[in-house]
Design a protein that fits this description.
The protein is mainly β and 585 residues long. Helix content is 6%, strand content 37%. The strands form seven sheets. A six-stranded mixed sheet has the order 11-10-13-18-15-16, with no helix packed on it. Strands 12, 14, 17, 19, 20 and 21 form a six-stranded mixed sheet that branches. A six-stranded mixed sheet has the order 23-22-27-32-29-30. The protein binds CU-O-CU linkage (C2O). CU-O-CU linkage (C2O) binds next to β6 and β33. CU-O-CU linkage binds next to β6 and β33. Belongs to the multicopper oxidase family.
């Protein structure tokens, strides 16, 4: 289990009030039981590293030379200070996916939204406090497609002395699903944006960076989870893949899902989970009571609803029981190997049933504070479209056009300076327009026969909200260029998923079946293919907050927008001033 070896840890895992001086492993200080929140310091040196998978060696952008990147660990209430220094030629930003960033939007990370990127040779200190959150989140680059290799777990432990609302697991293991491309992913997306066609798909999926034995030239790069019988393991699942929702299962074992996007849920059992890019989930794995004289594969492969080409391969890791007999006669090689059966690639009914099982814990200690009263209702369409090809050219998108994607037919145009800075300094003119529509301008049968005109509009439009507005947002998939499931991610907030369905949303009938009692609370939700999802959230966090499809190709095509939440009246309802080292564009 190479990914776990502490020997290779180049990151500072330094805890305490004194700060660190260099990138060396500093060790863990013992903290008194009743210690208050502390500040934890990390150093992220962005540098190139040669990595070989599937017999292809390439130079990838990494944090501290590690792939996947280092774990960041904090307790609820702690402050994190992560100094990111860019030693590569690409511009870099890092996003702390799922962290609410209360009043600290400057540390959120999306390029040209909350900050200008960190340029070569420059540093930026991401400085934020983890408030009211505990569970598994993750960090990733938030510029172009660099998150292909720049990602890692962000683990928030409960406050000292606060137990999980389930039996304490014997061990905790992050499982990050990713995508491996033999080619350079920056070249793939820049070429695709030029030609207008769909980008090349990945060559493999990975578990903790390893593709596993089902690919050519890959058996030695297999993630192995060695377990003891009769124990409970907490798997901290993260889908860091660029473009694919994934099914995941472990042969002959039942999984108990206990949390989604770092919020506890009512536990339920399942053989298979579905996890979209951006989502995280804690699941319990109970190992067999007796040594099973078998080994078991854990596998993941995509759930696909779109019409384009995709990587239909399967990543596998191995669940191996430690033999109770020392120098056992059994070599694991000789043991039978069981393989899980995953749902069909397009199994939308599995997706629907799975998402219906996700319910908030809604206990006294962990209540579901879903807004019952709604101040503002919004209806956005999400989906693909086209833009025209440059003159005298044929592009490789539909009918010689270029692929595009949009929210309410507005394909987001990335500005050349950061939205949050433009807002804070009162210089938004020419950067963004504060007039994102509350519903699309053109109404049509969103999930019926697509309209003849598939051309999207363009703009950098923000939806402006007063502080503490309670929001209901319905996101409606469109069938323009084919219905497709879109994992929508909202920065700065968790939201409650109060309803979902297929076809066109009916504003009279559908709200009657909304769940306002125990809806799941999360930061990324799959808009069902050819359907809609309704979410609610309280806009209690001033700042500019990005919302986008977490399929990176759709983000690149413009399926993104931003919310601007204004300051409240009280001093503690205002965005904090920008840090002095905030990068300049
Ligand atoms: Cu995980 Cu805006 O992203």
């Amino acid at each position: 289990m190479r990914w776990w070896s502490a020997g290779s840890a180049a990151t500072v895992v330094m805890v305490g009030r004194k700060c660190c001086s260099d990138g060396a492993f500093m060790g863990l200080f013992l903290i008194p039981q009743h210690a208050l929140a502390i500040t934890r310091h990390y150093e992220f040196n962005i540098k190139m590293q040669n990595v070989t998978r599937l017999c292809h060696t390439k130079s990838i952008v990494t944090v501290n030379g590690q792939f996947p990147g280092p774990r960041v660990v904090a307790r609820e209430g702690d402050r994190l200070q992560i100094k990111v220094t860019n030693h590569v030629s690409n511009n870099i930003t890092i996003h702390w996916h799922g962290i609410r960033q209360l009043r600290t939007g400057w540390a959120d990370g999306p390029a040209y939204v909350t900050q200008c990127p960190i340029q070569t040779g420059q540093s930026y200190l991401y400085n934020f406090t983890v408030v009211g959150q505990r569970g598994t989140l993750w960090w990733h680059a938030h510029i172009s497609w660099l998150r292909a290799t720049l990602y890692g777990p962000l683990i928030i432990l409960p406050k000292k002395g606060v137990p999980y609302p389930f039996a304490k697991p014997y061990k905790e293991v992050p499982i990050i699903l990713g995508e491996w491309f033999n080619a350079d992913t920056e070249a793939i997306i820049s070429q695709a944006l030029q030609t207008g066609g769909g980008p090349n798909v990945s060559d493999a999926y990975t578990i903790n960076g390893l593709p596993g034995p089902l690919y050519n030239c890959s058996a030695k790069d297999t993630f192995k989870l060695r377990v003891k019988p009769g124990k409970t393991y907490l798997l901290r699942m993260i889908n860091a893949a660029l473009n694919d929702e994934l099914f995941f299962s472990i042969a002959n074992h039942t999984l108990t899902v206990v949390d989604a996007d770092a919020i506890y849920i009512k536990p339920f059992e399942t053989d298979t989970i579905l996890i979209t890019p951006g989502q995280t989930s804690n699941i319990l794995l109970k190992t067999k009571l007796n040594y099973p004289t078998a080994t078991f594969l854990m596998t993941a492969r995509p759930y696909v609803t779109g019409q384009g080409t995709f990587d239909n391969s399967t990543v596998a890791g191995i669940l191996e029981y430690e033999s109770p007999v020392l120098h056992s006669v059994f070599s694991t090689k000789k043991l039978p190997l069981y393989k899980p059966i995953l749902p069909p690639l397009n199994d939308t009914s599995f997706a629907t049933n799975f998402s219906k099982k996700l319910r908030s814990l809604a206990s006294t200690q962990y209540p579901a504070n879903v807004p019952h009263r709604v101040d503002k209702k919004f209806f956005f369409t999400v989906g693909l479209g086209t833009t025209s090809c440059d003159q005298n050219q044929t592009c490789q998108g539909p009918n010689g056009t270029k692929f595009a994607a949009s929210v309410s037919n507005i394909s987001y145009v990335q500005p050349t300076t950061a939205l949050l800075q433009a807002h804070y300094t009162g210089q938004s003119g020419g950067v963004y327009d504060p007039d994102f529509p509350i519903s699309p301008f053109d109404w049509f049968n969103y999930t019926g026969n697509p309209p003849n005109n598939t051309v999207v509009g363009n703009g950098t439009k923000l939806m402006v909200l007063k502080f503490n507005t309670s929001v209901e947002l319905v996101m409606q998939d469109t069938s323009i260029l084919g219905a497709e499931s879109h994992p929508l991610h909202l920065h700065g907030f968790n939201f409650f998923v109060v309803g979902q369905g297929f076809g066109n949303y009916d504003p009279i009938k559908d709200p009657k079946s909304f769940n306002l009692v125990d809806p799941v609370e999360r930061n990324t939700v799959g808009v069902p293919s050819g359907g809609w999802v309704a979410i609610r959230f309280l806009a209690d966090n001033p700042g500019v907050w990005f919302m986008h499809c977490h399929l990176e190709v759709h983000t690149s095509w413009g399926l993104k927008m931003a919310w601007l939440v204004l300051d409240g009246k009280l001093p503690n309802q205002k965005l904090l001033p920008p840090p002095s080292d905030l990068p300049k564009c």
